Amino acid sequence: GAPRGGAWAAARDNPTVGTSGAQFLKIGAGARAAAMGEAFVAVADDAMAVYWNPAGLADLKGIQVGLAHSEWFQGLRHEYGAATARLGERMGSLGVSATLLTSDDMDSYTAADVKGVAFNAQDTAVAIRYGHRINDEFAVGATIKVIDQKLANEKAAGVAVDAGRISNPGWDLRLGLAVRNA
Q1: What does the alpha-carbon distance between residue 145 and residue 99 come to, in Å, rounded to a whole number?
Q2: Full DSSP string of 125-165
Q3: What predicted TM-score, i.e. pTM, was given to this entire model?
Q4: Scanning 42, 75, 150, 165, which has the fewest C-beta atoms within 10 Å of its C-beta?
């Protein structure tokens, strides 16, 4: 039957559970960033930079592509893909990315422990990003994302923005700041 304790009880007893959407956007992208404990906002120097800090696009050369795939428990799959292109020496770089989180079919249950129809979930975000170097010490970037979520017969959509900067003040130091998913 349906679970009675644990998460079921926590969700029933806490009215704020499940009230924020697009949580899948918090799942990081890229093996290198994961190996660095996701401390990648100031590094952001490859195609995966578009996830961590759009200002990292400013220094990318040519065309780059990055892909990430993760399979988790219970049939959850996370896919991330990004492509970047340098627009010109003084024009900055453009990037696009897509994030997808999907699940296998799950069984549903009613409050009376009756098994219902199987359902699945799918979360998607598509983004366009731009990064530009202002001078030798300062780069900025911005992102706009279109988000779509589906759980069984319920659907939600929204828009989010990212903004970032990278500073190179000297002394072999690089500082990054990013606001993501606002």
Answers
A1: 10
A2: EEEEEEEEEEETTEEEEEEEEEEEEEETTEEEEEEEEEEEE
A3: 0.80
A4: 75
